Amino acid sequence: MNASVNYHVRKPFTQAFEFDVDGIDGNLVSPELVTTHVNVTDIRNSDANIGFKTHGIIFLEGLNAVPYPFNEDEVALYNRKIEEVLKTQISAKEVLVFDHTVRVDDENASRRPARNVHNDYSEKGIHKRLIDLVGNDKAAEYRNGHFGFVNLWRPVENTIMSSPLGFICPDSMNVEDWINIELWYPDRKGEIMGVIPNPEHRWFYKSKMRVDEGIIFNIYDNSGVPHLAHSALDMSEAGAKKTIRKSIESRVLVKY
Known about the structure:
Layout: E1 2-8, E2 15-18, E3 33-42, H1 52-55, E4 57-60, H2 72-89, E5 94-104, E6 118-119, H3 123-144, E7 147-155, E8 165-168, E9 178-184, E10 189-195, E11 203-205, E12 214-221, E13 230-232, E14 246-255
Parallel strand pairs: 2-9, 3-11
Antiparallel strand pairs: 1-3, 4-12, 5-14, 6-10, 7-12, 7-14, 8-11, 8-13, 9-10
């Protein structure tokens, strides 16, 4: 399969995404990106042995659909479901769900699919977020044990027929492929890792993901589980009517 993605560009200075600029919800200023065509492997009918400990990702099936529209009434219930899934699938002992983002691939949406190749946090961003979530004392306890941050990604309302979520195989990346990118929000700052082009990158995705499916992928792990560069893929599935791509991603702090 062929798709296009937007890689970051290395600069001699720190770059940033600026969110909700001038107080306008969804108004985004982006650093320079370069559109690149890539080959993508569909694992839908593959016998590839993909596991969380070795690849930092696991694909789920047989889940209850996430309610859409997703509102505050469903948050507590969905958080409990996430806790159950993570304890079962990746052997998490403690789970703290701290963020849900609904993305709609529509030009009027405030949060559209992320079309830059990235990982959700840098090392600096991780430790700042850890302290923000649990405080300095508790953060020290986490750092002394095995902890991580993961993302649970789910389609909502419809099967994903365009802009699916794609990943780079961790063992096809070099350390030099990563660069730090700042995030400037009206009320805070964060930092992610962007990815620059490398023809050795091996991309994969799961086609036509249904509302009963999901993906758990690693953002950070202090004991060596690989984290994954990812991005929405600019491509469409053949042979079916195109629907608006809608998804929900939930970021979670876990202790093992």
